[in-house]
Amino acid sequence: MKLQLATCAAILATAFSASAQNEKSPGLQVLDRFVGTWDIVGSYTPAGGEKVPTQSISLRKWSTNGTTLHFGDPGSSPDDPGVQSQQSYDPEKKNYPGVVKSSLGRGEFTGIWDQKNKTMSFIGTYEGSATTFKGSTRFIDADTVESKIAFKKADGELMFDLKSKQTRRKPLAKVPTVDELIASYHKSIGGLEANKKITTRRRVGTFSLFDSPPSKITVIQKAPDLGLTTIEIDGFGETLDGTDGKVVWKSNPAEGTVELQGAERVQKLRDYQLHKYLDLKSDFKTLTSKGRETVKGTTYDVLEAVHKDGSSEMLFFHAWNHQLGLVKLADFTIEMTNYREIDGIFLPATTSVVLPGGRAVMTAKFTKIEHGIKVDEALFRKPTE
């Protein structure tokens, strides 16, 4: 069963959200605790498998009449449907019934509030699949909760479990200056110096081009700008592109090996910089604040970054934590989502290239990221015919 990891993390919060309303019943007042926008950091662990870090955002508000709670998670990438749910209070049964829609389908659940322990426990079932889920969300303080949930098959066999810590976002402060934004950005990814200490990286995952089936992708990099990407396409063979820092090339069964020139070479050298979008003041000629902008419901602080050759990019940093979420170039946008902590630094595990109309051209989802690997620089040289 295919399941988006960020979608899994978001399900941890499907039962909860609200915005303050006047004169609510005591039952509905419980849901007021969950108002706002929440950052969710946790893990997804399949039965018998390795724990995978997850990260998502939960948007929570009341319906117009103030009796139904709406939850929305935009998903981790353009092809991730995310999670939508609704929940209310049943005064006769004194419980919290709700419905949820996700990549698993449509499900129904019921929550029970424990006032003493400040905990909402819930149990539910997805229609058709007979998948059941059971978990709880406990308030640590007014703005922090811990959640856990287990998904099981009809026969009771564990499918996977999810755990997370959820933090309510504070109201946004004023738009930061360029220096303030860069300092906050470096803090959000584990620090400038900690990132600079990384000299090699290997990422393994899946790659999708438009609506094609996913293929295995492996990206190996060595500082400052050596890199190799290998994509294994069923029925076609391996496609490769890489650079030794000087010569940039690509190779596939249809075209053979070709050396890249001009603007394509320049862009590929930038893409293979291990520390790309790290030391921004060194990488760009000028950086100018363009204020604050909301894109598809997410608020960003924006910088215009101009290269030494005069070309420019628009960098969109999440306004609450200043992790880099979008990079807009002339013809497309790069979306970076599902940040994970790897060796003390934070990296996006999902990267998509999106056209102006909103369609994803390609998406890479990395399930394994390693640092400190030994790399022979001969790996990055242009293959000989």
Percent range of helical residues: 10-25%
Ranges where pLDDT stays below 50 over 5 or more residues in a row are 1-22
Number of helices: 6
**What percentage of the residues does DSSP assign to strands (E)?**
over 45%
Query: What's the Cα radius of gyration?
Result: 23 Å
Biggest pleated sheet? 13 strands, antiparallel
Instruction: Give the termini separation.
Output: 42 Å
Counted beta strands: 23
Verbal overview:
This protein has six helices and 23 strands. It is mainly beta. The chain folds into two domains: 164 residues, Lipocalin (Beta Barrel); 203 residues, Lipoprotein localisation LolA/LolB/LppX (outer membrane lipoprotein receptor (LolB), chain A), CATH 2.50.20.10. The strands form two sheets. The chain has a 13-stranded antiparallel β-sheet, with helices on one face. The chain is globular. The two termini are 42 Å apart.
Topology overview:
Blueprint: H1 5-11, H2 26-31, E1 36-46, E2 52-62, E3 69-73, E4 83-87, E5 96-102, E6 105-114, E7 119-126, E8 132-141, E9 144-152, E10 158-168, H3 178-188, H4 192-196, E11 200-209, E12 215-222, E13 226-233, E14 237-243, E15 248-252, E16 256-259, H5 262-271, H6 280-283, E17 286-295, E18 298-306, E19 312-318, E20 324-328, E21 333-342, E22 345-354, E23 360-371
Antiparallel strand pairs: 1-2, 1-10, 2-3, 3-4, 4-5, 5-6, 6-7, 7-8, 8-9, 9-10, 11-12, 11-23, 12-13, 13-14, 14-15, 15-16, 17-18, 18-19, 19-20, 20-21, 21-22, 22-23
